[in-house]
Amino acid sequence: MTVGGRDLFRARIGEAIGVSPSRVSLFAKGRVALYAILKALDIGPGDEVILPAFTCVAVPNAILYSGARPIYVDIDPLTYTIDTAAAEAAITPRTRAILAQNTFGLSSDLDALGAIAARTDVQIIDDCTHGLGGQYHGRPNGSIAPASFFSTQWSKTISTGLGGFAIARDDALAVRLRELEETAAEPTTMSVALLRVLLFGLEHGGHGVVFRNGRALYRRLSRIGVVPSSSSRDELEGVTMPKGFMARLSPSQARSGVARIGHLAGQVRRRRAIAERYSGWLSGHGLTAAAEPAGFVHAYLRYPLRVSDRPDFVSAAGRAGVDLGDWFVSPIHPVVGDFERWQYHPGSAPIADRTCLEIVNLPTNPSMSDRDVERVIAFLGQQVASIQ
Ligand SMILES: Cc1ncc(COP(=O)(O)O)c(C=O)c1O
């Protein structure tokens, strides 16, 4: 049975990314879309999946749920995306896929990865959870690799509260993914109702103190399992698939996605204008601006900045009312210990390990006014000595 809300969202996503709606499948979260892609590609026990050691724990979790082994490789120190040479060097006869990742909204080098895929029998899966609205050499993120996935969780470029979708470039994979969507569980009525409240809060809470307090309360409630959350305690503490994981997006979430996706282009433009202001200021002070290589259009979901004393910088930002992000404090964010459980070996990706100690994210929320942006710039001015 098809449901209007979902099919309309599929159509709008297809228009935004430049793919047929039949290639789009909708899931409860981005990580569920990744898991579905792994299943659809028959990736499982005995297989290896290469991924950047600068990601969200949800990514290795989905790989581990499939039965495959995550193989972490280092990142490029300027773009924070996967080091393509390191990815190629990590290929073994068991490798089935390389995860490209749009870190902070910037695509990985898909030409280099595509060339590796062409030389080997490895699939590229593009993690576009940060990159909806960005582009790679004139093509929308998510339209290039054989399989891509996105997140519409509340912190992403468009939100359905929680949510995600997968894009397949060929018909056979698309059909398989749609089957997985059709057979996935419907989200519970209670979780759909709570997500509606969350979305309302997001839309009407602005981005100042009310928003920050509301978000802190939501995080506290989600940790104790009272509201539906991105990551349940199970997902942060272990590698066993939580109950109810394999779920689809509800029709009402899809309807809210339809209402929001029309604003995507304008919002990405605003994010880019904010980022340009930060970059101009940083370059003007002889500091390193975020990288945007020629031919890439960064979606600037977050603006990365490296600082020498992060705890001090973060406390000062709190006092100044600057809403900093913390992606990624760990190669498998937000897990900061017990890396063996996720098969990550500290020291094996030294650039990522170091980046995780130094990085903060400046806000690029499109609802920020010019005055809000100038407040961030004034804060950077006060902290100039600790910016790297
Ligand atoms: C790089 C990356 N991949 C995947 C995900 C998972 O997305 P979702 O929370 O929709 O499952 C996240 C979450 O923020 C992420 O940062």
Structure, explained:
The chain is globular. The N and C termini lie far apart (54 Å). Helix content is 42%, strand content 14%. The chain is built from 14 helices and 14 strands. The chain has a seven-stranded mixed β-sheet with strand order 1-10-9-6-5-2-4, sandwiched between helices. Strands 8-7-11 form a three-stranded antiparallel β-sheet, with no helix packed on it. Strands 3-13 form a two-stranded parallel ribbon. Bound molecules: pyridoxal-5'-phosphate. Pyridoxal-5'-phosphate (PLP) binds next to helix 2, strand 3 and helix 3.
Order of strands in the sheet with most strands: 1-10-9-6-5-2-4
Which percent band covers the strand fraction?
Answer: 5-15%
Q: Helix coverage percent of residues?
A: 40-55%
Roughly how many Å apart are the termini?
A: 54 Å
Q: Rg to the nearest angstrom?
A: 20 Å
User: CATH first level of the largest domain: which class?
Assistant: Alpha Beta
The CATH superfamily of the largest domain appears as Type I PLP-dependent aspartate aminotransferase-like (Major domain)
CATH topology of the largest domain: Aspartate Aminotransferase, domain 2
Could you describe the largest sheet, including whether it forms a barrel?
Answer: 7 strands, mixed
Number of strands: 14
* Poorly predicted tracts of residues: none
Report the bound ligands by name, code or SMILES.
pyridoxal-5'-phosphate
Would you tell me the overall average pLDDT?
A: 93
User: What's the tally of helices?
Assistant: 14
Secondary-structure element order, N to C: HEHEEHEHEHEEEEEHHHHHHEEHEHEH
